[in-house]
Amino acid sequence: xxxxxxxxxAAVLDTAPVILAPARRSWEPFAxxxxxxxxxxxxxxxSAATPWLSVTDAxxxxxxxxxxxxxxxxxxxxxxxxxxxxxxxxxxxGDFIAVGLLRFGTGDSQSVFLAIIVLPVIWxxxxxxxxxxxxxxxxxxxxxxxxxxxxxxxxxTVSETVRLVIAVLVYAAAGxxxxxxxxxxxxxxxxxxxxxxxxxxxxxxxxxxxxxxxPVDGSSLPSRFRVAGACVPARxxxxxxxxxxxxxxxxxxxxxxxxxxxxxxPGMIAAAVRTVxxxxxxxxxxxxxxxxxxxxxxxxxxxxxxxxxTTCFHARISLDGTLRWxxxxxxxxxxxxxxGTTVFLRSGHxxxxxxxxxxxxEVALQPGDSVISVSDGVLDLFGGSLDSIxxxxxxxxxxxxxxxxxxxxxxxxxxxEQEDDVxxxxxxxxxx
Length: 432
Prior knowledge:
Elements: H1 8-15, H2 28-49, H3 58-80, H4 90-105, H5 118-125, H6 131-150, H7 158-212, E1 225-232, E2 240-246, E3 252-259, H8 264-278, H9 286-297, E4 310-317, E5 322-328, E6 333-336, E7 342-344, E8 361-364, E9 370-374, H10 377-380, H11 388-397, H12 402-415, E10 422-429
Antiparallel strand pairs: 1-10, 2-3, 3-4, 4-5, 5-8, 6-7, 6-9, 9-10
Helix pairs in contact: 1-7, 2-3, 2-4, 3-4, 4-5, 4-6, 5-6, 5-7, 6-7, 8-9
Domain PPM-type phosphatase: 222-429
Organism: Microbacterium oleivorans
Protein name: Serine/threonine-protein phosphatase
């Protein structure tokens, strides 16, 4: 006894984390620090070069610029060594000191460059974790109180104290807002990724189910029949299907269907049509199986099947070589004689979901004759133009073995990405 396959949805739910931080590229710290360094160094150069910007301590000003450049170098090293990324937060923390030195050297409380500290505030606060609100708050305090360390005798007036407190609160509020927005964005991204993984898992499971419905080989068929078939879906789940099986009278039935569209929706319709037709194994008339499929998909006046109709070729070959077939708007089935000549099996019937009545036709096969049916995606392999059908006919006439035909069509389909499903089924009848 085989165990039941694990529930894919449950597996994804069990392994889905609550919040996942997206992996950031190694060059991001360098890019962020480049902006901050440009502002700090640019401010120092502008202050030294223009008379209307104050310079009260040139050495401290250039120390701030040098520190920003040193931090840029560290960020550059992180690009080459991802292990250093663990210490990334050191860079924006250092920027608070660099901005503090720049501010002290360009007029202290009168400096116009204090606003630069919003950049490291955003850098730190944008990460996950509430502690990232406190770090920018401490960094802002360090920037504003740095003059008291550099100049111990530096006095602070009441009005300046109020201004510094307000500045600290404003930058702290900015950090809190950025952190909250970042947290919400991260939650939405995580949920989006989780839903995407869940959808991919369900689509993969649907593809496994669809492949399991395709016949593996013709070992269960009577010895007078040789069969070959394949389906190369344009997406993980395709709208094409094929099937073959032995009939109760000792013959063989086979089907090829093409649901309009691609993906899971058409794949579900394809599975339904295939199942209903196969359930008619005891019905000698192929048209009856098609009519049952149409009835099974009809849900009344609001049926959506009309928007995704299914073209279908279904046939039964008896032991004496009589081919009874019905074509529901397909038109891509050919009988290839043993001598290489071909004849297309045509009908005026409409596809399932559009038409309401189908009748069967009969053809007497000769030993060695083959019946080959393909989906319209095969014509794209021959250029997809008006002469594709003629090129396809030449391809069929030039190959006398159905397995060769199937293998070469599959090889063409897998050379490049296709816009439509490529499906082929071929059966050869001969004396035992």
